[in-house]
Amino acid sequence: MMNYLATLLLKTKRWRIQLAALGLWNSLFFPWFKALPCPALNCYGCPLAIVACPIGSLQHFVVIHQIPFYILGMVGIIGTLVGRMSCGWLCPFGFLQDVLYKLRGPKLHLSNRCGWLRYAVLITLVGIVPYLTLEPWFCKLCPQGTLEAGIPWLTLRAELRDLIGGLFWLKVGILWLFLVWMVLIRRPFCRFVCPLGTIYSPFNRFSALQLTVEENSCTCCDRCQQVCPMDIKVYEDAQSGQCIRCLECIKACPKGAIKVGNHRSSSLLPRIGQSQSRRSTDALAHHLPGSRQ
After folding, report:
1. Who's near 252: CB < 8 A, 6+ residues apart?
2. Under a CB-based contact definition with an 8 Å cutoff, are residues 18 and 89 in contact?
3. Domain that holds residue 104
4. 270-281: string of b/e by CB count within 10 Å (b at 16+)?
5. Is 190 a domain residue?
6. Residue at 216 is within a domain
7. Per-10-residue mean pLDDT for the chain, 293 residues long?
8. Domains contained in the chain, number
9. Is residue 18 part of a domain?
10. Is 7 a member of any domain?
């Protein structure tokens, strides 16, 4: 089933599904869907939104000190089936980041070593702080919320503009910071901040949809990293928690070494290390006395 899904997606332009998802989550015509959590990050407060933001809903239950069985169950089902794929195909904010990064301008490479920051955001701004203050602080500061809800509502309803204060300008500043950051590097919000992607991440290890790398075919040419929205080398860890299952690496691999499979693939790091060690040994032998020049 997962292979069939992947085959269909590989035949489709990803941006078309992303655009369709943006329109669906914010289509206005089905307001009774507000009780359903969106599988991706989409602000509940958007004037056009028809679904609930899973992180906003999660914070609601944290604030009232109850266990969010419904939200966790929904996220668990999606994660168990496709891992973090929703981030790559259905998230409006992820779509925005993909579009902005394509703009002309200087591009920077930032390692995923700081990816642990998103766990800090999840634990503090979604968990501890709302629990203690009884306020949904991630939603208060979320740049997507500012873009989809804060600014549109102030544009539509003039009477709300009298309520603008320091918090709103802080939110606008955070939004602008991320918008500039999105032009410079690939998906910074997804890689270092997004709490929903953080929740989905562990499911990549055992979800029904898995990526595999054929060791005998992969040449470690890094073409996968060049097209990856999350800037990862797939051959190092095909089930990385940063992977959003966009499948761009499968399309780009010149050897066809990356495939959709049903089991966890092994990392190619040992083979890479062996190759580097062998090259170092050969170089050393080349300079030893008596070696053939």
Report:
1. 223, 224, 226, 227
2. yes
3. 12-203
4. eeeeeeeeeeee
5. yes
6. no
7. 87 96 89 84 93 94 94 95 96 97 93 94 97 96 96 93 93 97 97 97 95 94 96 95 96 94 52 43 44 41
8. 1
9. yes
10. no
